[in-house]
Amino acid sequence: MGGQIADALLNIVQDKFHVGASPTTVCMCDLTAALDLQQPTVSHRPHVGAILTRMSTVVDMPETRGHLVSAITTASDPGEILYLSSRADFSEGGSIRGGVPIIAPWFGKNLGHDELQHGWARRVEWETIPTNGGIDARTSHDDWDLRLGTQVLPHGFAMMLKARNASPLRRDFQSAFHPYFRVADVRTTTVTVGDHEFRFDGTAVDQAVPLPEWTPLVIKDSQRTITVTYQGADHAVVWNPGSELAAQMTDVGEGEWTEFVCVEPALLGDQAQGISVPPWDWVEIGMTVKVTPAQQS
Length: 297
What we know:
Layout lengths: L1 H16 L13 H6 L13 E5 L2 E5 L8 E4 L28 E2 L23 E5 L2 E8 L2 E10 L2 E10 L5 E3 L1 E3 L2 E3 L7 E4 L2 E3 L6 E6 L6 E4 L3 E8 L3 E6 L1 H7 L11 E8 L7 E3 L4 E12 L4
Antiparallel strand pairs: 1-2, 2-3, 4-10, 5-6, 6-7, 7-8, 8-20, 9-19, 10-18, 11-18, 12-13, 12-15, 14-17, 15-16, 16-20, 17-18
GO molecular function: carbohydrate binding; catalytic activity
Organism: Corynebacterium rouxii
InterPro entries: Gal_mutarotase_sf_dom, GH-type_carb-bd
């Protein structure tokens, strides 16, 4: 059974990234054996850095960006959990449309920052470090130290972001995971956040919902259910641009607004004013994503 799963997953990866078995194209390091032994495998390519496998999931992160761009699981069909725009921009200093952007140290244009949407974390260079069963990434900028951990799970993945105020002054801070979840058709997808249920008809949806201490975030379409649990978040932001706004976005492919919904665990603070972080203190936020096929939901 393990060999069949590994073969299927290898085919998915090769089809997705148009790679062959040759180690000069991509060093897969015997993906089948890695899956059977439940151990990670690492690869490096020009703009796609670490591919790690464990049981029935593969995750993919650019070598110099703390940004998960793909998570493929054999737990569902289709296997790709995340949407990545056909027009995604991987250029230095740009923001990649899709995957899981890291939002920090502010959300939107909050905290008095009008010049850069969602902070600098998704735009700067990171160092990525393959680990046993995951990928670590780190960066430092503007007296903030960010540490990102990504852990591969049997039917999904988990992420943890830690931030340290490396300044002698108390500072306000916000952070979020901004996952673009791939769906069969957002117009037939429901998102549930506690007592709030969201449906999508082509008009833009952008709403921050305060979270109780714990409640799962659930994305359900005709093919599967994606369940998101979180740690340290105080809001969930639900976003889809709808048809009109998407048509104005140069990095979203034509008609692709129907292929994703963003459900974002976020640490925004009271009235979205951030939280105050003392000098040298750490703050963290975590997210776990699990995929269940529709027939098992």
